[in-house]
Here is the input.
Amino acid sequence: MPSMVVIATTAVPVHLRGALSRWTTEVVPGIFVGSISARVRDELWAQVSAVVGDGQAVLIHPAPTEQGYALRTAGTRRRIPTDFDGLTLIKMTGTTQPTLAKKAQSA
Here is the structure.
């Protein structure tokens, strides 16, 4: 039975956006929404994960959880979904910055 999915992408190859557009609608740049079966969703996500490269992608789909949805992520990202007592929370990671010791060495 089809269910609604949302796929958000950032800095992904153009051909991936084309592949996503075959099954979903790109409502704003990088945000794809559609109603597809679980099998198509899983196959589509496998393709996204394989070619996302240095970009980012997030899939949100219905699931029998307390929140009513599940998240999947691919690519490099600062936001990491983390399970906290059955709830999916987002953990932010820091950006990579040069340390003071490295700055002093280069001066």
About this structure: Strands lie at 3-10, 25-28, 31-36, 56-62, 69-75, 79-84, 87-92. Helices lie at 14-23, 38-51, 100-106. Residues 3 and 35 are 5 Å apart (CA to CA). Residues 38-51 form the longest helix (14 residues).
